[in-house]
Design brief:
Spore Coat Polysaccharide Biosynthesis Protein SpsA, Chain A, 11 helices, 9 strands, 312 residues, 9-stranded mixed sheet, globular
Length: 312
């Protein structure tokens, strides 16, 4: 890790964006207000058509850079383009609908220096489109330092992408974000697992990031989220030699495959549902777990059918 004694070390802040001009302005402002002076801002536009590009070109600070891409919808590719253009020794990622506390970069860089750790994350909360606090959809998560792979797999901790700060050397060592379309919108979880498998982390329980819940949030559009998460776990199983972690990841993969089958049947795709439930069983899911998924799928499918009759 690069040594530093003051706040002149450059942190490259990577902000991917697509047609979020109003929220993007707020996100960028939260970077401009950082207590840490040694940063550059790399905004990567994924082919916006809402005036974002014109707005970004009007920015005057010398440490703000713009990368323009044709639209792909692959956020891993967009973030990687920003990381490749970055000149800093450290990379921080901020989604264009999220906000940072002004202390965020300074706090994390100080912790990285104190603990000699190559990456860091913090606690985060949720806000709505107007910036008001809202309860998280999936409950809260703890923060933990050190070797946290098992805690990530068990979902005890969550490394929010907008909280992540990592040395560029470590980021490149683990292979950047995986741009496989099967991981799209789950590439951040995959990266956190790979980082945790290589190096210890320093975490902060301070809430320094505000994740925005709104109808246009990208993860809300991820209709096959269970399948994508199962893919992440399967990838981890194939990569790790740690039998304890492999067993835990297999369990998580099986559970998500079972839930994916439920989602498929509710969308009237019975063949796909059966295949997913079969894969869940082969990955070690108990018959009870799969039967529970089948029952919930049938209840949901019947409810959808009744609603369609009622609406008709």
């Amino acid at each position: 890790m690069n040594e530093f004694n003051d706040r002149t070390v450059v942190v490259s802040v990577i902000v991917p964006t697509y047609n979020r001009l109003e929220l993007l302005r707020q996100a960028l402002n939260s970077v401009l207000q950082q207590d840490w002076d040694g940063w550059e801002l790399v905004v990567v536009d994924d082919g916006s058509s809402d005036g974002t590009i014109e707005c970004l070109k009007s920015l005057t600070p010398a440490n703000v850079r713009l990368v323009l891409l044709p639209h792909s919808g692959n956020v891993a590719h967009v973030r990687n383009a920003g990381a490749k253009a970055a000149t800093g020794d450290y990379l921080a990622f901020l989604d264009s609908d999220d906000l940072w506390d002004p202390r965020k970069l300074a706090f994390q860089m100080d912790r990285i220096r104190e603990d000699n750790a190559p990456w860091s994350y913090t606690a985060y909360d949720h806000i709505d489109a107007s910036g008001q606090p809202v309860p998280p959809r999936s409950g809260g998560f703890a923060t933990a330092s050190g070797r946290i792979t098992e805690r990530i797999l068990s979902t005890e901790v969550a490394v929010g992408i907008s909280t992540l700060l990592v040395s560029k050397a470590l980021f490149e060592r683990v292979g950047l974000f995986d741009e496989d379309p099967a991981l799209n919108l789950r590439e951040d979880y995959d990266l956190a697992l790979r980082l945790s498998a290589v190096a210890p982390v320093v975490a902060s329980a301070e809430t320094l990031v505000h994740v925005r819940e709104h109808p246009g949030r990208a993860t809300h559009a991820c209709g096959d989220s269970f399948e994508r998460m199962a893919y992440v776990y399967g990838k981890f199983v194939a990569a790790t030699s740690n039998e304890r972690l492999k067993k835990l990841a297999r369990v998580r993969e099986a559970v998500h495959l079972a839930e994916a089958g439920t989602a498929r049947l509710r969308h009237r795709q019975p063949v796909a549902a059966l295949r997913l439930w079969g894969r869940a069983l082969r990955r070690g899911a108990s018959v009870r777990t799969v039967l529970s998924a089948v029952r919930r799928a049938c209840v949901g499918a019947n409810g959808n059918a009744r609603q369609m009759v009622h609406n008709g």
